[in-house]
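Progress report, Aim 2. The chain analyzed during this reporting quarter is listed below.
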Amino acid sequence: MKKKSKRFKALMKLSEKEKKRLSAKEILEIVKKSAGTKFDESVDVSLRINVKQSKGGDFSLRTVVKLPNGSGKKEKVAVLCDPDKIEEAKKSGAEVYGSEDLIEKIASSKFDFTKLICTPSMMSKIGKHGKVLGPKGLMPNPKLGTVSNDITKAVKDIKTGLVEIRNDKDGNLASTIGRKSYSTEKLLENYDFFLESIKKEKPDTIKGEFIKNIFITSTMGLSYKVGAK
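Predicted structure tokens for the chain:
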């Protein structure tokens, strides 16, 4: 039988102690206290939403949320633009930038960026590489703020907390709302903003409660169900 670590035993003990209806604030305090690893763990929220519409098939949510205190996630941003915008891309804070040369890298799958911003004029050239970018979640999309002529703003938004939200077929979705180094107040502000943003996406064709359940956890921690206001 595999021996359990001291850290795991401590987490389980804390979990048993806290098995009651907890508010988001109480859970965030527990998650911060129990995140005992050496690195700055992310604090994550997982939701299950109601996707059953009264007509028109299941609802699919895909949007972006700009967290007021940022997510703390480090993104490596690439900008695909016309040659005359390369200088702006350089100054924007993007780590990777280019035109035809960047398209060649994408075509050969020789890239390591986590977000791709594209100017509208380059979309026709990147479209055929959707099979490479799509599965990695890197295909630029105007609704997600990754297709823009304002390169500086687009890069800044991603670097300062713009997170992409999408649900799976069962209605599950998740997002990072900060790091364990964040204060409870900042995490709670991000949490409340995130939830309100999701609620605003509820279509009129869905009846009843939109958010079915909410869980909060950290990278290496236990998951806690939010059970009180």
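The first strand starts at residue 22 and ends at 23. The two ends are 40 Å apart (CA to CA). These observations will guide the mutagenesis work planned for the next reporting period.
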